[in-house]
From TrEMBL:
Fe cation binds at residues 80, 82, 124, 126. Binds 1 Fe cation per subunit. It holds the Pfam family Pirin. This is Pirin.
C-alpha cells in the first residue's frame, strides 16, 4: 500500500459541490500498454494513444511497476541527458537513487517526489540503491514529464526533493478518500511542488464504495489515471480500472467512485489526478529532448555531444547490478 497514509477524519475536507458547479464529462478512456524502460524495469505507458493536445502541458508518463523484485532483479537508468522540460519521479513504494550534473540528488523513497527541471540541459541517473538490488523488494512509482513553455526552455536547471511527509494531506467531503496534494492547488490548499508550468498533481486513495468529488480549475485540462483498483468516473459513471487513463472535458469538478469490491491486496482504489494550463506551443519531442522545433532538437544533440550539459561528477552514482 502507499507509504504515506493518514486518518482522513483528522484532515481538512474538500468542499462539496455548489448548485452552479458542473461535472467534467469523460471524453476518452485508454488502456496503457506495458513495456520496459532504462535497463529493463517494467512500465505502463500511461499516455499511449492520447493526443498531444489533450495532454498539454504534459508530454509523457510511465507507471513504474508495481513489482516485487527478487534479489539481483531491480533495474534503473544509466546517465542520460534532458533538455526543455521537467521530470517528476514519485515513489509510491520502494526506493530510487538520483544524481545529476548540477549537484542535485538523493534517495527518493516511500512517498517522496523528485522534481527536476532540466531546462537548458542536464545529465542525470536514476537507479535502485545497491542494497535494494542485492535484497530485492517492492518497487512502484510514477515518472511524469512536464513541458516547459518556450520562455523557460533554457531556464537554469533546478532540483527539488519533496519528502513524503511534506505533501498536503486532505480528505474528501465524505471522509472516504485520502488526497495527497504534491503540487498545485485544490480547493484553496496548495502542494509543496514548485512548477514553471501551472499544474496540479494529486495521488488519491478512494476506499471501497466511496466517492471523490473535488473542484478543478476550469482553465486546466484534467486527466485521471488509475494506479490500481476499479470504479467509475464522470457524471455518467463510466467504468475505469487499473492501467487506464481518462481524459475529461470542461467543467468545474471531477468525480471518481470506487467499486464496493476491490482486490484483497489493494483495499482502496488508487488514482492519480493531474492537469495544467495548456501551453499551446509547437512541440518537437525526440528522445530526452522536448523542444519547439526540429532545429532546436538538433542543437540540443550538438550541445550534448559537445559536453555543454555538464559532466558526470567524479565518483558518481552508477548502476549496481549485484
Amino acid at each position: 500500500m502507499p507509504a504515506v497514509t493518514a486518518d482522513t477524519l483528522s484532515l481538512p475536507r474538500v468542499s462539496a459541490a455548489a448548485a452552479t458547479d458542473t461535472e467534467r464529462p469523460v471524453r476518452s478512456i485508454t488502456t496503457g500498454p506495458r513495456g520496459f524502460e532504462g535497463e529493463g524495469f517494467p512500465v505502463v505507458r500511461a499516455f499511449a494513444g492520447v493526443s498531444a493536445a489533450d495532454l498539454d502541458p504534459f508530454v509523457h508518463m510511465d507507471q513504474m511497476g508495481e513489482v516485487e523484485y527478487s534479489p539481483g532483479e531491480p533495474r534503473g537508468t544509466d546517465w542520460h541527458p534532458h533538455r526543455g522540460f521537467e521530470t517528476v519521479t514519485y515513489m509510491i513504494d520502494g526506493r530510487f537513487a538520483h544524481q545529476d550534473s548540477h549537484g542535485g540528488g538523493g534517495l527518493i523513497a516511500d512517498g517522496a517526489t523528485q522534481w527536476m527541471t532540466a531546462g537548458a540541459g542536464i545529465l542525470h541517473i536514476e537507479t535502485p540503491p545497491a542494497e535494494l538490488v542485492d535484497s530485492g523488494g517492492l518497487f512502484h512509482g510514477i515518472q511524469l514529464w512536464v513541458n516547459l513553455p518556450r520562455k523557460d526552455k533554457f531556464a537554469e536547471p533546478r532540483y527539488q526533493s519533496i519528502e513524503g511527509p511534506a505533501v498536503r494531506l486532505l480528505s474528501s467531503a465524505d471522509g472516504g478518500t485520502l488526497v495527497r496534494l504534491i503540487a498545485g492547488d485544490v480547493d484553496g490548499w496548495s502542494g509543496p511542488g514548485m512548477t514553471h508550468t501551472p499544474i496540479t498533481l494529486a495521488h488519491n486513495s478512494i476506499e471501497a464504495g466511496a466517492q471523490l468529488n473535488l473542484p478543478w480549475p476550469r482553465e486546466y485540462n484534467a486527466l485521471v489515471y488509475v494506479l490500481s483498483g476499479r470504479g467509475t468516473i464522470g457524471p455518467v459513471g463510466h467504468p475505469i480500472q487499473q492501467g487506464q487513463l481518462a481524459v475529461l472535458g470542461p467543467g468545474d469538478r471531477i468525480t471518481v467512485a470506487a467499486d464496493a469490491t476491490q482486490d484483497a491486496n489493494r483495499p482502496a482504489m488508487e488514482v492519480l489526478l493531474l492537469g495544467g494550463r495548456p501551453i499551446r506551443e509547437p512541440v518537437f519531442h525526440y528522445g530526452p529532448f522536448v523542444m519547439n522545433s526540429k532545429s532546436e532538437v538538433i542543437q540540443a544533440l550538438d550541445d550534448y555531444n559537445a559536453g555543454r550539459f555538464g559532466a558526470i561528477p567524479p565518483g558518481a552514482l552508477m548502476p549496481h547490478r549485484g
